[in-house]
Amino acid sequence: MKPPDLIQELRDPNTTKIVFLVADGLGGLPLTPGGLTELETARTPNLDDLAREGVSGLSIPVLPGITPGSGPGHLALFGYDPLEHRIGRGVLEALGINFPLERRDVAARGNFCTLDAEGKIKDRRAGRPSDERNREICQKLKSVRVPGVELFIEPVSEHRFVVVFRGEGLSANIEDTDPQAVGVAPLPAVARDEDSRRTAEFADRFVAEARRVLHAEPDANGVTLRGFARYPNIATMQEVYGLRCACLAVYPMYKGLARLVGMDILDAGHSLDEQVETLERVWDQYDFFFIHFKYTDKTGEDGDFAAKVRRIEELDGIVPRITRLKPDVLIVTGDHSTPSVMRSHSWHPVPTLLWGRNVRTDGVSEFSEKTCLQGGLGQFEAKYLMTLAMAHAGRLGKYGA
Amino acid sequence: MKPPDLIQELRDPNTTKIVFLVADGLGGLPLTPGGLTELETARTPNLDDLAREGVSGLSIPVLPGITPGSGPGHLALFGYDPLEHRIGRGVLEALGINFPLERRDVAARGNFCTLDAEGKIKDRRAGRPSDERNREICQKLKSVRVPGVELFIEPVSEHRFVVVFRGEGLSANIEDTDPQAVGVAPLPAVARDEDSRRTAEFADRFVAEARRVLHAEPDANGVTLRGFARYPNIATMQEVYGLRCACLAVYPMYKGLARLVGMDILDAGHSLDEQVETLERVWDQYDFFFIHFKYTDKTGEDGDFAAKVRRIEELDGIVPRITRLKPDVLIVTGDHSTPSVMRSHSWHPVPTLLWGRNVRTDGVSEFSEKTCLQGGLGQFEAKYLMTLAMAHAGRLGKYGA
User: Fold this and answer.
1) Which of B72, B342, B369 sits opposite A399 (nearest CB)?
2) Most A-contacting residue of B63, B77, B362 (CB-CB within 10 A), to test interface
């Protein structure tokens, strides 16, 4: 029996409220070995208070040593096994632009490319058009029609776009048409199973029509498709936990990930302040609140240690406005680490604290990588965090008599 | 490969002895956040010695955040995955009164109820009869005969009883007949599969006959049945570990759980003193001894912090008599936490120590929730404790060459 099934079975109704404050890429590394991490450098009196009154630990997003993307990182935080539920590239791209994907859709990531007179790829990225040019080319592409299926074309950035095939009986087990090489023609869309044959034909037809529509383009006169994917068949958080869930995110990708697990996507403005204003406004209408803070990850990816420190301090500053609402459970964590010295996501466990009723405190009085190592939550798989939240919120009954 | 299979493959014969001293509901919480737990408050010089000489940690009974009942809690301690082996309510009730259930039996929990003239439920608990009245009504019920199946009726308490259907070819995939509501008639026993159809018919026949026999009862003139269940199909500890196992428990439920995994149930009297006397007497006849101490849980459920502290000190006092027997491995743990401030089982990890040969000591010199957090066993799933016991007892060979 898997945790979501178990929780569905054991959950008790309650009126308690759970807040997940997710600082993307929160965990870090010191600039020089033996030094302080970004979180250890930051002045975080409010987070330190929460750590002292709560219980801390380090969450392992997927498995030890595995660096997660945003998709698996967040699925785990929401209590889903990130190894069981995989989000295909096409779907992730669609989520990233907050496209309202339906369960019957097949999405693929598209690239504009430059084809020579023989139809061979000269430039896999069509000379990297600007985002504005991308939107113009996508506008042309929107005139493409394929009988038997509805098409949606949405720009992403530069040479990237998303194509969504909508209709009944579609299936996504299809090879990429991008040969990942120049000097060869794009590949046909090859169905890997019988169910996907019709969808592959639609894809081929779309690619052919796209070439026709784009033939006068100097660079972007062809397209390739990758990562055909369907919406994962995943129970909503309402179904699993019986919680009315609100997403207070600023970036489209995280709204998309929250929509995937059935949260209501609220207009949460463009800053932490506005996110918390929204939180205050809708406090009575929901049981679970996902507040996403992007900038700890962004500064980490920029390799800007000092900026990440400042962003952590900004996050710390907002904490009193959240605790003033008296959540029953407040969790502060990240979906993965993004050490600024690495300028990328990493596998390092993520500092996590749980503050609420019936916590067994642990002597941790500061929120940091090193102190969390001594915390009462130990090192745990992130997918158990929702179970812990439900338990501390008095929303889980006993397993077995 | 699951741990029991692995152990069955790797186990080495030996003459070493393992003692599990299980203090039910051992783990706790402070009365006020930041204070001392029951175990931290108790004076436990003997347990502290064991912790200093042994290795400590915190066991997670099922999964992080999951509160176990006694069944899953003990199955995990005995090395079985509590999510894989589920003990149905009917079986657990039968175990709770130490009914000698057989593998072919189907057991259900029965409730006496009050039916009105139209056969609708007026009171789901028949006015909560006394235990003595319960026994009298059960005595009447014992006259019920259902052709084709053997019946056993046993009182539990108040309005609760157990009915056991014994015969070949029975199956327990049957819906509850208790509608969990008043103003409606009890439901028929609906078989969820073909195999259970005959058993459901026996159940319906039993319920009808019960009404006939009880018709003159003022309150308890009807019965409902819930939690139809069969004995779980589980390998015995003798089969898995090659150990001759003795259960030294006082309460019927724990004898029942020990019987379920094939232990010999010894008459261990009514107190810790008598349990240890039995231990001394049968020391040469067994390899594994399960000593169950109920009162750390009972006082926790009563919400009596001070009494739980005293019970822990009582447990501590018995330790020298056990170590005097020179067990090769002595484990002190609980099946779950029962913080007296919560007055219930909880999900919090359980302080655990392992004392014996070849332990890697860890600097822990006191047995408590906080110190165990720093212990060499870390936080671990309880189902691995038997493997650790077997290893330290020199009873497990190498896996792979």
Assistant:
1) B72
2) B63
* Residue type for position B92: L
**pLDDT for residue B1 is more than 70:** no
A391 CA to centre of own chain: 25
A1 confidence band (pLDDT: 50, 70, 90): low
Cβ–Cβ gap A362/B341 under 8 Å? no
CB contact under 8 A, A358 and B339: yes
Kindly tell me the burial class for residue B140, based on how many C-beta atoms sit within 10 Å of its own C-beta (0-12, 13-18, 19 or more): middle
CB of A269 within 8 A of CB of A277? yes
CATH (residue range A3-86+234-392): 3.40.720.10
- Are A359 and B33 an interchain contact pair (Cβ–Cβ within 8 Å)? yes
CA dihedral B36, B42, B48, B51 (to 10 degrees): -60
Q: What is the pLDDT of residue B252?
A: 85
Give how far B13 is from chain A: nearest CA, Å: 34
- Give the confidence band of A154 by pLDDT, cuts at 50, 70, 90: very high
- The enclosing H or E element of B117 equals none
Q: Mind listing the pLDDT tens digit for each residue in B26-61? A: 999 999 988 999 999 999 999 999 999 999 999 999
Write the pLDDT tens digit of every residue in A100-112: 899 899 999 999 9
Q: How far is the C-alpha of B249 from the C-alpha of A50, rounded, in Å?
A: 42
Residue B228's pLDDT band, with cuts at 50, 70 and 90, is: very high
B-chain residues within 8 Å CB-CB of A400? Answer: 68-73, 82, 86-87, 92
CATH no. for B3-86+235-392:
3.40.720.10
Would you kindly state where each structural domain of chain B is located, as residue ranges? Answer: 3-86+235-392, 92-230
Fold entry, domain B92-230: Alpha-Beta Plaits (3.30.70)
Interface of B to A at Cβ within 8 Å reads 29-30, 33-34, 37, 58, 62-73, 82-83, 86-87, 89, 92, 339, 341-342, 344-349, 369-370, 373-374, 378-379
Average pLDDT over residues B249-269: 92
Indicate yes or no: CB of A388 within 8 angstroms of CB of B70: no
**Contact yes or no for B82 and A399 at CB 8 A:** yes
Tell me the three state secondary structure of residue B276: helix
> Cβ of A387 and B86 within 8 Å?
no
Identify the sign of the CA torsion B361, B364, B369, B373.
negative
Q: How many Cβ atoms sit within 10 Å of the Cβ of residue A368?
A: 23
Q: How much is the pTM?
A: 0.90
Check A390 against B65: CB less than 8 A apart.
Answer: yes
pLDDT band at A401, cuts 50/70/90? Answer: confident
Q: What pLDDT is stored for residue A400 in this prediction?
A: 87
